[in-house]
Design a protein that fits this description.
alpha/beta; Rossmann fold; 16 strands; 34% helix; binds NADP nicotinamide-adenine-dinucleotide phosphate
Amino acid sequence: MEDSRHPFLEGLSKHRGVAPAVVVIFGASGDLTARKLVPAIYNLSVDNLLPNEFHLIGFGRKSIPDEAFRASMEDAIKQHSRRTLRGEIWQRVRAEMSYTSSDYADLKGYEELAKKIDALEASFGRPLQRIFYISTPPNVFEPIIECLGKSRLAKTNHGTQTASKVIIEKPFGRDLKSAQRLNRVINQVFDESQVFRIDHYLGKETVQDLLVQRFANAIFEPIWNHNYVECVQITVAEKLGVGSRGGYYDGSGALRDMIQNHTMQLVALTAMEAPKSLDPESIRDEKVKVIQAIQPLKLGVDQSDVVRARYASGLIDGKEVAAYLDEEGIPKDSFTETYAALRLKIDNARWKNVPFYIRSGKRMARRTSEIAIRFKRPPVNLFSEGGRFNVTDNTMVIQIQPNEGITLVMNSKIPGLETRMQPVKMHFRYATTFGSNTPEAYERLILDAMIGDGTLFIRGDETEASWKLIDPVLQHWEATKCDGLELYPSGSWGPKSSDAMLNEKGHEWRHSG
Ligand SMILES: NC(=O)c1ccc[n+]([C@@H]2O[C@H](COP(=O)([O-])OP(=O)(O)OC[C@H]3O[C@@H](n4cnc5c(N)ncnc54)[C@H](OP(=O)(O)O)[C@@H]3O)[C@@H](O)[C@H]2O)c1
């Protein structure tokens, strides 16, 4: 800590009621802190959204002097912030950064941390809310929470401005049992209102806009149901392979890494009923209800709602890339999937007989995350004669990344003396309408956690509901190993059986082949 303290952004603050705060990042020497967390905090300070009394403490096993931590965070901001480093603001932020080193399971380290926070409170002359951001690998989530409980750090005065909060990174468990256990450990120390489970997809503008599009537009909500929707397709596709993270990824796979969390969140927001209000609990209640309404997945040989595959070699951007099994750190007997597709049936009145197809994969043809709502044909189709009209299904595509926006696909007459038709697209692009320098997901999430707004975080019962659906699939795959694990060429849109699953009902993936 530096001797001459500047009140944090004194005189500039227009903060949204953020109580004075100390943020402690566990795992602060890691990749996420450098790439996302500290740049997000810097950008919040540029926007005057931090409280006057603010301090950031990095916590980790390595011994890092305060000055060295500040210097590495300066480099991180220069490299990763959406805005350039501004000297005057950075000087104030860096003065309020320090580092504490300790083993994550050593209570002494937490006692030192407590003393440091006491000293900060004394120098600010007021209590600080304690925000504990757990950004370590998951093997130390539990010891950290237990130590926060055993030390006097996790104040439980929830409902007050100085209540502690804990923000937890993904992955939240690796199956239902471990997620339930982690929830129990957390809830022994923190009240659920103090817990903020991250799914950074929820911090993305387009994902937040889903509720606005659905519930603020009279043209969409009345047709958002089985009377008008033929099917819903959600795709989270990456071009990248596992790279140097093979060892980590092989213990996870597409179902755990992407489907159980990000993709299921997209399903919940797309399918949920209108909440009673914008209150976080009302929204999360509706999300839980719709996840719980998904029927158990069929896993039979003849009838299956799931497909899994892993990438073979192939071409990405014209370059030959290795097969999954040839990547660094992947055991030869691996049966980990790099692609998973699921057919979900939601057992409620709104979505009767409307399949939700979801898929996620690595080494796919293109990087894209999108939700496509495919509508039914009009009841009377004047343009069906002899197949001479090229009529297409209306589709609404919500593009989450890249090129965030919404596209409506509809039929239009081609100008000319004959009646000929062609699908046309109406685009709305965030960057065109609002400019491209929008806040990053982590800015919104860190600010909301400091305010105590849990809307964009996953509640304990929500994560368990999602694991309940996924767990039998994981167990089935564990038992069947490589049986039924297909291959797809890198640079393609996935395995053939995924296309076949949609074809059963006369559907096709929006991008396939
Ligand atoms: N990086 C991303 O883009 C990203 C994206 C989404 C979610 N996440 C999640 O965010 C968390 C942090 O990710 P990260 O990429 O920053 O992780 P990381 O760089 O692998 O690890 C963060 C820090 O944790 C400590 N650590 C590493 N391995 C450990 C071990 N086996 N036991 C105890 N401590 C260990 C290290 O700090 P010390 O040695 O100083 O203790 C390390 O600097 C993870 O839960 C990850 O799943 C990351």
